[in-house]
Design a protein that fits this description.
Length: about 170
């Protein structure tokens, strides 16, 4: 089984809102036991390239997907390992979620560096408050349990080491 390593960024602005990206599900990735949704929200991030570690990939992906470079990096918060079907093949996805803070204007986020394929799949970038997340009834949020996970982070309850998330 192929393994795909990924890095994601739990990016908080100065108002303690988290940036999420709304993705179109092109049907390429199916998580067994999860409903297939046409659209879902997920923190910025993507695959780890050859020669990168998870944090290097997080830094690169943040610039590519948001244009933001001046962030304060925190620890790796969460690890999510899940078996998925990707383009009809079984894949072991290993994602690491890093905390980062952006003190500039929330309006600085830009989609300008997205490649054409990403531009087709990325619908919207939005800053979400904890209250917005808690009220996101019917929205597909990734990782599962994001409102509760973020509540711990905002309350200063950071894990001693990365917390392993259930699929």
């Amino acid at each position: 089984m192929r393994t795909r390593r990924g890095a994601r960024i739990v990016l908080l602005d100065r108002d303690e809102r988290v940036l999420l990206i709304q993705h179109r599900n092109d049907g390429a990735i199916v998580v067994p036991g999860s409903p297939v949704r046409d659209l879902f929200w997920i923190p910025p991030g993507g695959g780890v390239e050859e020669g990168e570690d998870f944090l290097d990939a997080a830094r690169r992906e943040l610039v590519e997907e948001t244009g933001l470079t001046d962030v304060e990096w925190g620890p790796c918060l969460w690890i999510r390992d899940v078996q998925v079907t990707w383009n009809g093949r079984p894949v072991h996805k290993q994602d690491r979620y890093f905390l980062a803070r952006y003190r500039g204007s929330a309006d600085d986020v830009s989609r300008a560096r997205l490649d054409p394929g990403e531009q087709e799949l990325i619908i919207e970038l939005r800053w979400w408050s904890l209250e917005d997340l808690a009220g996101a009834d019917g929205e597909a949020l990734r990782p599962p349990g994001l409102p509760e996970l973020l509540a711990d982070v905002l309350a200063g309850r950071l894990p001693d080491g990365p917390r392993v998330l259930r699929a």
